[in-house]
Amino acid sequence: MGNACEKSTISQEEVPNGRSYGPQYRKNVMFLCNHNSCRSQMADGWLRQLRGNASVGVASAGIVGGTAVKDGAITVMKDAGIDISGFTSDAMADFKPEDFDVVISCCGCGSKLDGDKEAWKKRPVFQDWNLDDPPAIDPGDLSAYRRVRDESKAKVQELLDMLEKPYGPQYRKNVMFLCNHNSCRSQMADGWLRQLRGNASFGVASAGIVGGTAVKEGAITVMKDAGIDISGFTSDAMADFKPEDFDVVISCCGCGSKLDGDKEAWKKRPVFQDWNLDDPPAIDPGDLSAYRRVRDESKAKVLELLDKLSV
Question: Which of 38, 107, 179, 255 is catalytic?
Answer without folding.
Answer: 179
